Amino acid sequence: MATPHIEAQSGDFADTVLMPGDPLRAQFIAETFLEDVECVNRVRNMLGFTGTYRGRKVSVMGSGMGIPSISIYTKELITEYGVKRLVRVGSCGAVRDDVAVNDIVIGMGACTDSGVNRTRFGGHDFAAIADFDLTRHAADAARERGTPVKVGNLFSADLFYIPDGDFFQTMKRHGILGVEMEAAGLYGVAAEFGARALTVCTVSDHILKGEALDSQARQTGFSEMMAITLEGLLRDDQEANR
Predict the structure, then answer these.
(1) Among this protein's residues, is 205 annotated catalytic?
(2) Which residues are 152's β-sheet partners?
(3) β-bridge mates for residue 104, sequence order
(4) Among 141, 202, 195, which residue's Cα sits nearest to residue 14?
(5) Torsion angles phi and psi, residue 239, rounded to 5
(6) Tally of CA atoms within 13 A in the half-sphere of 164 that contains its CB
(7) pTM for the structure as a whole
(8) Residue 100: which residues within 8 A CB-CB, separation 6 or more?
(9) How many helices (H) and strands (E) in the chain?
(10) How far is 151 from 168, CA to CA, in rounded Å?
(11) pLDDT band at residue 216 under the 50/70/90 scheme
(12) Residue of 15, 133, 140, 205 marked catalytic
């Protein structure tokens, strides 16, 4: 069952995979939030783990940086390992005045300057959107915890160092919550191959204000984001089993 990029065998992955960009962050998530953890992938050091959360089998694996990288891994996870739910858990940069560092944003949709979804969709524009129920359950979990979140559009950029700084003002006018590099690719792959996907991010910096979190504050926000994400998945399971 191994693929060119994943050495795991059939059944090694849960039907739900959390995907931070950094493989070491995947290891941290596995060791911090999951129980009975087993490492199931080491190819290219893109670490993947499977464990349990409150008795529910969950996997976590790094995606790498950018749409091409996450597209490779998510396609193989879906078509070769039967993964049904994929949640990107990462960080983003803000451009709107009402979005601050350490805020948590849920990506209901993802704009992009990448051409991958247009290629995927026969040269036409594709609306890259998250699964509605995963979005709703994550938002409900945040509300129950008393944690404010913002739900809306992300922008998935092909370039980390965007040369046209004026374009951030365009994003701001159009209400973009956060700039990151993977969500639009994840949503396109999930749509094409019949899986469900969501992106939840902490705001690590404000691009226009020049503000950024220190390492301790970033970790606090990440832990709350993970709690919301995992509780949202449990809500999704409970509703499906009614």
Answers:
(1) yes
(2) 107
(3) 149, 202
(4) 195
(5) -65, -40
(6) 9
(7) 0.97
(8) 94, 203, 206, 211
(9) 7, 10
(10) 19
(11) confident
(12) 205
